[in-house]
Amino acid sequence: MTQKEALFQYCLRLGDNALILGHRLSEWCSRAPFIEEDLALTNMSLDMIGRAQALLKYAAEVEGSGKTEDDLAYRRPEPKYFNHLITEQPNGDFAHTIARQLYISTFEYYFYSDLEKSKDKTLAAIASKAIKEVKYHLQHAADWTIRLGDGTEESRNRMQKAISDLWMWSGELFEMDEVENSLLKDGIAVDLIPIKALWSNHIKQVLTEATLNMPEEDYMQTGSRKGIHTENLGHILSEMQYLQRAYPDAKW
Amino acid sequence: MSDSQGPLWEVFVQKKAGQPFVHCGSLHAFDKEMALQNARDLYTRRNEGMALWVVPSSAITASSPEDMGSFFEPANDKVYRHPTFYQIPDAIGHM
């Protein structure tokens, strides 16, 4: 694998994470528990889609085959997507959406803080824009986790269930392969080993304040680095890519 | 006022530093942190402001419509209360 191929793959992974989670959050539009939350979730969705656009545009540039960010977003089949499996998990009830966001935003907070120092100028610039958004996403998710966890019996049970249900998808966030390792050598990628400890500490702190139990180390799901997904991604893509597939190159 | 969506809050947005906070609407939230976050999402997502205030609606004491006459009408016929007889230099600008 050349450095160029590794950088392309790295951007694709980051872009896909943002795109798929952005799509999932957009599904809350008009369905949130109340209007204030409807706007909060769709605002986050737009942050994610904006970030996906920047990352996929850069991926296309690095690849250099004349593709655009739209080609990458709308014309790849499932096995060519490299988003973490947790991003494609269904919204579930509100607690599941919040638990998913807590896991991901905590990860992204440490990840993008570090990526800001990347030797790749474009990635560093995207990271410094993303970190401002992520801080807010994390605050929102942590506040809700605490509010629901330390709330009524019903809200506590649901929040605990969501935290436990999504746990097995969290291990993948910290997987490193040849893509990360070769870019890490050049000071471009983020080292995920120290991030894992920071992540666990922060999650533990939030869960303790929320009077919830931290799940125990257990079997972790894996696959997305190789393009292996859960059945959820196919359904997401069939909706997301419908227009482009039915009317290729449609303009309006 | 309280219901399943939490109590009502009034939102004030400041467009630029130094300008007054202007009331722009209300929202529901369970606590002040949530009120501030909701205000940010509802009222400043298109660059409308630099700072926010949220105030519990219950903390606001309002004049009532029945008092309109005694409260406001006496001001109608007292032009001498308006400083319109002075020349205001242009440099002062917005006052």
- Content-based structural category of chain B: alpha+beta
Q: Low-confidence parts of chain B, pLDDT < 50 over ≥5 residues? A: none
* CA distance, first residue to last residue of chain B: 37 Å
Strand content of chain B: 15-25%
Q: What is Rg of chain A?
A: 18 Å
Q: Which two chains have the most extensive interface, and how many residues on each?
A: A-B, 11 and 14 residues
**For the report, how would you describe the main beta sheet of chain B?**
3 strands, antiparallel
For the biggest sheet of chain A, the summary is: none
Task: Compute the number of strand runs of chain B.
Answer: 3
Question: β content of chain A, as a range?
Answer: under 5%
Number of helices of chain A: 10
Termini separation of chain A: 39 Å
Secondary-structure element pattern of chain B, one letter each: EEHEH
- Count of alpha/pi helices of chain B: 2
Overall helicity of chain B? 10-25%
Keywords:
heterodimer, A: 252 residues, mainly alpha, 65% helix, B: 95 residues, alpha+beta, 3-stranded antiparallel sheet, 2 helices, 22% strand
List the helices and strands and how they pair.
The complex is a heterodimer of chains A (252) and B (95).
Chain A: H1 3-26, H2 35-63, H3 69-74, H4 94-115, H5 121-149, H6 153-167, H7 178-185, H8 192-209, H9 232-240, H10 242-246
Chain B: E1 8-14, E2 21-28, H1 32-43, E3 51-56, H2 68-72
What does this structure look like?
The complex is a heterodimer of chains A (252) and B (95). Chain A is 65% helix and 0% strand. Chain A has helices at 3-26, 35-63, 69-74, 94-115, 121-149, 153-167, 178-185, 192-209, 232-240, 242-246. Chain A has 10 helices and no strands. In chain A, helix 1 packs across helix 7 (178-185), helix 4 (94-115) runs antiparallel to helix 5 and helix 4 packs antiparallel against helix 8. Chain B has 2 helices and 3 strands, in the order ββαβα. Chain B has a 3-stranded antiparallel sheet with strand order 2-1-3, covered by helices on one side. The mean pLDDT of chain B is 87. The A-B interface holds A 34, 36-37, 39-40, 43, 136, 139-140, 143, 147 and B 5, 27-31, 33-34, 37-38, 40-42, 45.
